[in-house]
Amino acid sequence: MVFRDEFAWSHKLNGKWSIDRVVDTGLRANLEMQKAVKSTFDQGIDRLAQSQAASSAAMQAELAYQSERLGEQIKRQMELSSSEVVSAVERGSADIVASIQQMSDYLGSELCEVRWAVERHARVSEDILKVLLNSLDNTSRQYFEQGVKCYETIEYDFARERFNKALEVNRTNYFAYQYLGFIAVTEDKPDEAIRNFDLARKFAETGYHKALALSHLARSNHALHDDAKAADLAKSATEADSGTAKFWYEFAAYNTYLWRKQQAISALKEAIERDWTYWAVVSSDPDFDSIRFHVNQLLDELREREKQKARKAIDNLKRAMDTAKKAGAENELSGFPKVVSDFEAQYRKNIVFVYRDIIPKAQEWHDKAFIIAEKAVDGQISSKNQSISQHGSDKNNEVRNLESSVAKLKHERDSMNYKKWNAGCGSYALLGIILLLMWTWSEPQKWARV
C-alpha cells in the first residue's frame, strides 16, 4: 500500500464514507459525518454482540444510547428548512466547523485532511489567520488566498505554486506549510510531506497548531511503518496541547501498535476524561482489539466511578429534601419525589452516559432543595423575630406600668411619712409647752418659801 493510503488509514470506514473530499457545505457536511459516526457505532454494537467479553452487554447498551442520541440530532437537522440551514450557517459557522472537526476525529484520523480543510474557519485559526494575513502586503495575501482556493478545488499544482509565492514573503506562515504537507500526501511524496509538516511545527505560534502539525508528522511516520517515531511525536502533541482529546487518542493508538499496553490505556483514559464520546469510539474501534481485555477493564473502572458519583448525587439530593422538610418546606417540595424516582429509574440502566447526565441534574435539584430550605428557615427566623419583637414591646409596656405603679406607691409612702413627721412634731411641741408652763408655775412657789 502506498504512502498516501497508509496515511489515510482508509480501512476504518469500511467503504461507507460518502462526504465530498473538501468540506464546504456546513450543516450538510456535518449531517453526513454524524451519519458516518452513527454507522460506526452501530457496527460496533454488532461486533460487541459477537464478543464474549463480560462487559459486552453493558457496552452494547452504551453504544446504542450514543447512537440513538446521534440519530435524534441528525433527525433535528434534517427537519430544518433551507432558510433555517442558511441562517444557522451564517449564525454559527464556527460551531458547525467545530462539530465537523469533532466528527472527523471520532471517525479516525484518516479524515485529518477533511479536518484541515475547515481549520481556517475554526475560531482559533480564524483569528490567527486574520492577524497573519493583515501583516502581509496585498499581493502576498492574495497568493495565500488563491492557494487555498486552488487546494479546495483540487488544483494542487497551482495551489503549491501560490503557497510557495506566499512563503517567499513570509517564511513563517505555518498554515501554508500545512497545506503543502497535505498536497505532498495526495501526490504520494512522503519526504516532502514530512518536511512541510515539520516546518509547520517549528513556526506554529500556538500549542494547538504545534500539536496539529505533530499529529500530521506522527501520521506520516506511521504511514512509513515507523510507529515508534509516530508514538514519540504523538506524545509531543499531547504535551503541546494536553486539553484536546484527539491527540491523546492518537497517542493511545500508536502505543497499541507497539504493544505498549500501559501507555495505551493511560492515554485512552486521558482522551475519555476530556471527551466522553471517545468512550463509545474506543468501544467500536477495531484498532484496539489487540488490547481489548485491558480496554474493557478501563471502561469498567470508569463506569463504576461514574456510577458511584451518580449514586452520591442522588443521595445528596435526598438528604437535601429531608433538610428542607425539617425546615418546614414540605409543600414546596411537591415535585421532588418524582424527580428522585426518575433519577433512580435512570440509574438502574447501568449506562455510563446516563450516570454522567444524572450527576449535574441531581446537583441542580439538590441546590434547589437547599434554596427552598433556606427560604423556609429565613421565614421562620423572621416570624420568630417578629414574635420576639412583639413580646418585647408587651414586656416593655408591662415594665412601664409596673414602674408607674411603683412610683405612685413611693409617692404615697413619702406622703404618709411626711404627715407622720408633722404629727409627731406637733405632739412634741405641745408637750414642751405644758412642761414649760409647769416649770414656770413651780418656780415662783419655790422662791416664795425661801
Strands, total number: 0
* End-to-end distance: 175 Å
Overall morphology: elongated
- Radius of gyration, in Å, reads 44 Å
Strand content: under 5%
What share of residues is helical?
Answer: over 70%
Summarize model confidence as the mean pLDDT: 78
Secondary structure topology:
Blueprint: H1 3-8, H2 27-49, H3 56-78, H4 82-107, H5 112-117, H6 123-134, H7 138-152, H8 156-169, H9 174-186, H10 190-203, H11 207-223, H12 227-240, H13 245-257, H14 261-274, H15 277-284, H16 292-326, H17 336-347, H18 352-449
Helix pairs in contact: 2-3, 2-4, 2-15, 3-15, 7-8, 8-9, 9-10, 10-11, 11-12, 12-13, 13-14, 16-17, 16-18, 17-18
Detailed description of the structure:
With 450 residues, the protein is mainly α. Helices cover 81% and strands 0% of the residues. The chain is built from 18 helices and no strands. The model is unreliable at 10-24 and 446-450 (pLDDT under 50).
